[in-house]
Write a structure and sequence with these properties.
By secondary structure, the protein is mostly beta strands. The chain is 3% helix and 37% strand. The strands form 8 sheets. It has a 5-stranded mixed sheet, with no helix packed on it. It is globular, with a radius of gyration of 21 Å. It starts with a strand and ends in a 5-residue tail after the last strand.
Length: 440
Amino acid sequence: MNLLEPSLHFDLSPFGSENVLIGDINNDGRAEFVFTQGPGSLGIEAYRPGKAVGWRRNHVTEEDLALDCLTAMDLTGRLLWQTGQPWQRPYPFRTHGGANGMLIGDMDGDGTRALWRIHGDRLEMIEGLTGRVSRAVTLDSDGYYKLLTARFSGGKRKQLLVKPLGSGLEGHPHGCPVTVYDAELAVFWPPRDYPGVGHHAVPWDVDGDGRDEALLGWSLVGPDGNIRWTLPLEGNADTGHPDRQVVADIDGDGELEQVLALEQLGLVASDLAGRIKWRRPSGHCGDACVGKFFGDRPGLQILTNDEVAGQKRRNGSLVMVDGRDGTAIWEHTEDHYGVPVAWPTAYGPQAILATRHEYYDDPEDARPFVMDGRRNVLARFALPQRLPSYKDYALPHDHKWRGDWGDYYVYQLVDLDGTGPRLVVSTRMDLWAFELTSKR
């Protein structure tokens, strides 16, 4: 087993955050880091003290809601700009999903990138060179917290798809309404509801006309916002929406399919014409890691999980699935999330960059690792095994979910400088970059 040492390491205190956006914001050909401190999706009206009801009570305090700090840093560790004041309390701030409401992109096709973010009830364009808000529009609610881009108009221009992160706004189904804006922040699609909308959407030019469609929840939506087909699924979108949605040729027939991790509706594979090819039941299917993990099997394989079984440490918590028919290659009692990486193994050309699932208790080891298609650990990363836990502090909250306090590792695969993808691992205190190689 390899122990990989970092090629970069930065001390992020006091401005650090697990919510880090990585991309070329100043158009110099190299990536920069933008750290965002704030409540994230917990900053909406439904969580505010005095207004929150049920399980939303005690999630955030007024000081959490007042936090809004963005910090940009280059690859040398030099701070480029900072807006707002970083957190300075003797206990951690609380956040959830903070990176979902931001992205880096060239929306108008002129070659210049900018930051785009949802902040409260505002959709903002932020200059990457300065951090200054140069364009903004007021949304009809502060409940939106997911940004995606697509080329619905074709050509070089892109549009921004805006939606709630999880539960829909009042009077709307899960993940709805969905609105699309152009580069000038004018409405491109008006707000619309769609069936089974989850946390993500997959833009894809399905018909090859140069314009993206959107695989959005259970449906394929055309570039005009109209539904072309909906999968024949029955159930409640609150418990049957996609937590993960992947497009790939999973059965090796030369045609693309989509794989959806649909929580209580299980793992579902369909073609891009809306026909279900196979289904696999699950108590709560939360992930679909699709790759070529076995070279001697036609098609691709899917690493998936069952979070209900995982919390009970039952067999079937983690399953390797054959992409041709959804049958299990093996099952295990551990529960992982993963992404495929180009890493030749004894079984196939790809390995899995994995983390153990983050439950309410402390995991034995929260560090990411590389494993092959048979769960053999190939590499670990030189990271601290334990991070500061919420249990180390006297906190002003009753509800204690460790992830919202920053007690976990966040990782991304990204090309920082044109030399190939590296693994970037971040916490609120540190950021590391590792070269992924099996030749150590």
